[in-house]
């Protein structure tokens, strides 16, 4: 049985050495906290024990281990190929930005000011001019947009860079979700017309939806941020919003902004149009980050550890030999090697765990902790029957597969796991959404950790009031987004907080 010899302690690492008896005593697998009972501690355990991250000696900074980086690479490969189809080119701009340039767009940088990290010394010498480390790259890139764009033939200019940024967060750092340094892609584009910019904003947002729903199996809501919550200095912000039922918190999954002409004005990004007139460009910026990985872990993980969707799992199938006393050990190991070879040749990411210093039960628990979608066990009976035992990570169901049908059956099972994870997450998310019409219903739903859909007058002052009135230990509520797919708003419907005529439906809740 899986996990039979796991002690439940999480102190020893999976690399523990020794004889089998010692392994059983000393190697702890399993989590000491449950997801429903202590979510924060559970999450911290899962990301470390699942070998996603290692804590670093600078608070808020984390080492991304190969198990996590491989997920980022899979999303990177998908997104990079898609934006190249849109004729968006990759580039790279420096990490550093001068104070003069950073302060040029004051409305924009004001939102980042508390988080900007500064280089003030070189060795023991104090720098005459302090240098900032980019919190985002608008002010880094746009002086050069004004240099490169002269006429309408220079447009559109569509650039993307894969890089890191630093935002010196001081409150509640959380691996993947909120860290001082993180990886992302950031796209920056310029167009001759607003229509072109508007089209791209939604095209990119659809790619972000696909990353979450098709790859990470996490349901998201596409919508528009309020004026209060939009990107500072931009015209409007669109978002894909996720939700973590266990904490009752929304997550801004990825954003696609139309910047309008504000930055063009500040950085003098002008061009001569086809009529020979001077005009300002229309700009967009858009980004998603390694936060995506944290959302996936929070949504799918369980009390055994990670649960990885097959599309992003570094390892989709782990093959475990199960030799018994007097069994044909060589035959079993050969069957494992043959199984891995067949799966790899069919395009699956598969490996065999043939380590002889761990029992099969220990291996089951180890790979469950790491979230591998499918486990294949091969023992003497399987060898005799020319079958393998397949065990799903998402629901622990077991089935015996004829070796002759292996690749076809594995493909079906992995597709089914991917879809089942999404369906389960969506069902759980949907049960957490509550529609309210007044303040009493709103506060009650908030206390129950709901994602709240409410009619709203769309006034910034009222949004500030909601934040002020809900401020507490759990954090204030705020607008998450106004969904593009708006439910019907009957005439005479009033705003849940102000009592004024409502203009739209908006999702509200606490957020990360």
UniProtKB/TrEMBL annotation:
EC number(s) on file: 6.1.1.15
Listed SUPFAM superfamilies: C-terminal domain of ProRS, Class II aaRS ABD-related, Class II aaRS and biotin synthetases
Parts of the chain that traverse the membrane: none
UniProt domain Aminoacyl-transfer RNA synthetases class-II family profile: residue ranges: 71-309
UniProt keyword Lipid metabolism, yes or no: no
InterPro entries xrefs: aa-tRNA-synt_IIb, aa-tRNA-synth_II, aa-tRNA-synth_II/BPL/LPL, Anticodon-bd, Anticodon-bd_dom_sf, Pro-tRNA-ligase_IIa, Pro-tRNA-ligase_IIa_arc-type, Pro-tRNA_ligase_II_C
Organism: Salvia splendens (Scarlet sage)
Protein name (database record): proline--tRNA ligase
NCBIfam families in the record: proS_fam_I (TIGR00408)
GO molecular function terms listed in the Swiss-Prot or TrEMBL record: ATP binding; proline-tRNA ligase activity
